Amino acid sequence: MLCARPAKPLLPLDIKEAIDTALAYDLASRAQVSALDIDPILPRRLTDRVSGKHQSRPSISVWKGDITTIRDCTAIVDAANSQMLGCFIPGHKCIDNAIHASAGPGLREACYALMEEQGYLEAEGQAKVTPGYNLNSADVSRISTGIFGFPSAEACSIAVRTVLEWFSHHRDSTITDVVFDVFSESDLNLYRHCLSELSYDDGKSPGVVFPAGEQHIVKLYDSPSFKKYGFRCLYDVFGFQSWPSEQARWSYFMNHLIIVRDWPQQELYSNLWRTISTRFAGDAGDDRYFVRTSNADGLFIRHGFPVSRVSTPQGHYAQLQCIRKYRENAVFDAAPYIAAAEPHLDPITQHLPADFAVPVCPYCSSDLVLCVRGGSYFNDHPFRQKEREYREFCERALESSVSKVVILEIGVGMSTPSVLRWHNEDLVEESEGRIELVRVGRDAAGFCPFDLMEQGYGVGIQGDIRDILAAIMGCPFDQDSCKRMYS
User: Which residues form the Macro domain (predicted)?
Assistant: First the structure.
């Protein structure tokens, strides 16, 4: 609502104070980084090394992340439009929206006052400076950028060159550090490469080689046979019924399962298991933790977590089931079906031949589907026992008056909140402080209700999961990331 609301009429003071309080809570819950802890690619260069009063270049670095979470900086720069009033489209993922959402309505009011006094739109390349309000930075410099969708590589070159040229003519500047904040991995590589080449021109080795790109598993929704269905991600298959043939449906299932089967090991899961297994080592160690996940990919088990300590109430891609589910045991290991179909998949179209004999339920000859909760057909029988064991674990935790129990909720968004989020919140409230909630993730996945935080029952930490877990668990993931977090 604040995003779409104009600057006039001004908000009543009590409402503004309530918004400021909420934004202060929000900022405190987000993982933050100090600008002083971001390692520079180009170090500061002084022209008078004795007095240190003049410089030909400040320290220059690049960082990928939320610009509103950078601390220890005088100002951040906003890519604005000529109206200088911020973005008015709710949910639009632009830097203008991110800055205004974190700063609060005071920023738009200040921008409106400046533009009303000026009386005309801001020329491209010109800037306005306002206070930062609820931001970490004291000020916000807003540049009228003009064209949208400017080529990234050219923009990178212009930005770096402009900064260096400005400092070459302002050697008495008190600005000692410049951080280029980027949104995407590709932009991060662009700026790193550009700045590293400048470092090499200084007579220094670049030190780090940055790849032009990374290898990714081919996405099904970009393949010739499946792109036409409009799939944007693997999740889109659930509820889709417009298959032209059973061979087409089975082709998708097989490719889907092969991707999940061949998904590479993930450092986050490996380090999480290493930390848990070390912390809870001993004969009774397994009784002190339990994993309950809405993911059906089996990655916890593949990374070492015992099957006995993992509950997957939403199902498991490693199994197929009869769509009729009239028999509880009509659930089958998917591996033999994958092995039978994989040699027949066309490497280009990823499609099975038209005469491929599609498997059916051996009991009733009905269709087989993924054993994942995608509708009323889901057969949850194979997962009930682990759910019972999880409930018993929670009951023991509630009955205990000695041990402190923590729910570490990682990356649980609002797709299916009734599976994990609401259940976890109910457990915490029921325990009256014996169980505490630590909620980690981006946006809603890192948000903890205010009432739980005020009672000291929970905390939400918004940001990159990998970096947050590094800080929480004693830096098993990345020492540099941990050093930057909460320093």
Answer: 47-199
Mean pLDDT of the 246-252 span? 92
Residues 294 and 377 in one domain: yes
Percentage with pLDDT > 90 across the chain:
48
DSSP code at position 309: G
CA distances from 382 to 16, 276, 307 (A): 52, 26, 13
Q: Enter the DSSP assignment of 283.
A: T
CB-CB contact of 360 with 246 (8 Å): no
State yes or no: pLDDT of 217 exceeds 50: no
Q: pTM of this prediction?
A: 0.72
**Of 70, 58, 64, nearest to 30 (Cα)?**
70
CA distance 138 to 73: 8
CATH, residue 184: 3.40.220.10
Q: Which residues contact 109 (CB under 8 A, 6 or more apart)?
A: 7, 10
For residue 211, name the pLDDT band (cuts at 50, 70, 90). Answer: very low
Residues 6+ apart with CB under 8 A from 141: 75, 76, 77, 78, 127, 128, 129
Take residue 220 and report the two structure tokens written for it.
């099904």
Helix/strand/coil for 406: strand
pLDDT confidence of 131, banded at 50, 70, 90? very high
Phi/psi class of residue 11: alpha, beta or left (left: φ > 0; alpha: ψ in -120 to 50)? beta
Our CA dihedral for 390, 460, 299, 260, rounded to 10 degrees, sits at 120
Pairing status of strand 139-144 against strand 127-131: antiparallel
Domain membership flag for residue 159: yes
**Residue 66 domain boundaries:** 36-201
What is the number of structural domains in the chain?
A: 3
The reply to whether 172 falls in a domain is yes
Strand, coil or helix: what is 306?
Answer: coil
Q: Please give the structure tokens belonging to residue 285.
A: 């160690």
